[in-house]
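Support case: user asked for a sample of complex input and structure output to validate their parser. Sending the pair below.
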Amino acid sequence: MLFKIALASIINRRLTTILAVCSIAMSVAIVLSVEHIRHQAKENFASTVSGVDLIIGARSGRINLLLYSVFRIGNATNNISWKSFQNIAQQKQIKWAIPISLGDSHKGYRVMGTTEDYFTHYRYGQKQLLKFSQGEKFSGVYDVVLGADVAKKLQYKIGQKIIVSHGVASVSFVNHDDKPFTVVGILEATGTPVDRTVHTTLAGIEAIHVGWINGVQTPASSISARDALKQDLTPKNITAAYIGLKNRITTFRVQRAINENKQEPLMAILPGVVISELWQTMDVVEKVLSLIAGLVAVTSLLGIITMMLSTIKQRGREIAVLRAIGAPARFIFGLIQLEVIVIVLTGLIVGVGLFWGGIVISEPIISSLYGFSLTTNPLTWSTGQYSLIMLTVAMLFACLPATMAYRQSLKQGLTVKE
Amino acid sequence: MPSKPAISLNNITFRWSKNSPHTLDIESWEVNTGQSIFIYGRSGSGKSTLLNIIAGILEPRHGTVTILGQNINQLKQTQKDKFRANHMGVIFQQFNLIPYLSVRENIQLSQIFSTTQNTTKDIKLLINQLGLPASLLSRKANQLSVGQQQRVAVARALFHKPEIIIADEPTSALDTETRDEFINLLLQQTKENKSTILFVSHDKSLSQYFDQTIDLQQLNKIEPSHHVI
């Protein structure tokens, strides 16, 4: 009967009820979306690179090395010599070693020189290999393979000639325009920095810098693309290298050996470990996002309570009638509580529906635009937890109007003072 | 017929708080079972206080309130609520019904807090006896005219056959014609039920319908001018 009265009462106040339900639903959808995206972003971030056991580079900061070698952010402070790389690559614990060479760009996208092995060993996400949407891996010195974003934004097709600029600024005045590259392959979207990378051969990187001394082209030694091919294009330096081990148990031993290398100051990092270190630096952003979502939820709940409070005064007669027929004061308390619970529960259900629908609709859009994959079944245990917390807070807040109604019912008795 | 009095008040005093003056002081008052009592009281004469004390909602500072042989001062608040649900029917001046419930639901409300084994009245018969069509039962209470609402209020007050009916100015919102008809119906139903009725009004002309008339100003020893409304 309590339920029936509560239900009839809130249906009677249709408009305010609908608004209240909407406000709860919106805030629930916001909280769940923020939490979901936060979680997914973390997962995507953590899965930027997988299957790479170690990354080696010149001795500098661990995060710095990770940033330039995986995220294409910032620059290497120093290079590592080809000789050191060769020495390491030939060690018996090492299964494969992929050299990478950074420092040039194309229209703001980083150019990365590497070997064909990159396409067979580099993995991301759940140990997924890179796949070609068009074309294939490079075979010639002046071939490039584009990441999905590069191809899409610049609308490049297979066979297109592109010019590489010296340096990594988005507008560069020094172009390697004497040695154009040809697009031979385009990768599928991965949702990682690979999408924003122009891949080419180490030899290609070497060729465009033939005759360059200390990063400046010497006019006297300018040499044609064709002639450059006749030279020895084995690099003298590379920026970093990805390492795969035969047995992951040896990871720390190999890492220590590289870190203690006497010939050259080298450093090896475990990408997974450093990625999680990096994520922790974004802790504050994460917390602020959660806090804002939480505040939105609290605000909407406060709105409901304000609405309930304003109705209590108007409901004096109703309360008097219920008291007259023998309703104990706690029934009045329960009635107000129940009305809040029904509104919040309805809001929760609508909100979860909104959130779920939103994710289902936006998933293909987000995934194609940003290569950021969202799971389409976002209803997890934490959805239930958030709903429960919200309901509990609502019930706590509802004690205020409920207590007011309770007090009023005791004080006014059977007579309503206008 | 030597039966217990339906209502018996002894040395009742009441004031809203320690610092405020008394609003009610009644030495002794008894109402016999089955009687219809007209209580004449102007506003501020303490009638609201009196009704609330009899209904067990307000607690007198001193004195005993005995209803149907039960000293209700000794009951806990929730027991008083239950006692009221079981033994009393209340009719207000106006707005007796929960606006968003149907007439039928409003009438049945009186039963939900009651724990007596009394059989309830036939709801259709009751509504017909009060001169209302049964088709009204499914209507929302706020779709009824004031006169109809007051009759539904009578139906609700009588539905679970309570021993005591408290009517607080139930006719003040009605015009003269409907008022007379209303009072006749109310008293007829009450009599059929063998219930005791306390009917409060400031309209002295209504006293002709009742067994006994009490002037609250004579019953209450406090001067009206002292009253805090």
